[in-house]
Task: structure prediction
Amino acid sequence: MKNAVYIKLPRTGSTTIWNVLEKNNVKYYGGCHMGYWGDSKYNIQTNTSPHLYECVFNFIGKKIYDESYTFSSVRNPYSRAVSMYTHFSWDSVRTFKEFCIAIKKGKYPSECAKWHSSSLTKHITCGDKLMVDYVIRFENLQEDFNVICDKIGIPKQELPHKNKTNHKHYTEYYDDETREIIAEKFAKDIEYFGYEFGE
Result:
């Protein structure tokens, strides 16, 4: 098996992915591990950068990072926003519009909610350069995970659906105002990964 590191981004199918990776002894690091919210499971300072990939790089060291196959996962921001809204960290908001307005104002009920609402490009890009070797798309989760299995030399396996939230199709939550807020908040994610509303 090739050395591999999964950079775990919130609301992108990451819980499903790391559950399988852990069983195959593949390293993974997310916001909690790097101290973006809660306590890091490590007894050293891990939140060394506003960019998650850089925290991981600093933590494991250049040699290990460079020699590992690095990958992460992303999701359509319009769909991801609805998943954020239904996450327990946002229980204090009553409606999706209220959630969007809080996002626009940068008013988060907790550090956990702030982490879950963070931009994806912020954590795995530097300028216009992608800082991981491969990106799994939530919309193509199983097929892209199969690619990872081949790349790092673990058996292909069916992904269970972990940490699922129950909600209608994401498009049903939006009106013109909320769509504009999410489009503005996650403009770089939308542009960089080529997402559109309604796809």
Observations:
- The chain has one domain: 4-193.
- Residues 4-193 form one domain.
- The two ends are 36 Å apart (CA to CA).
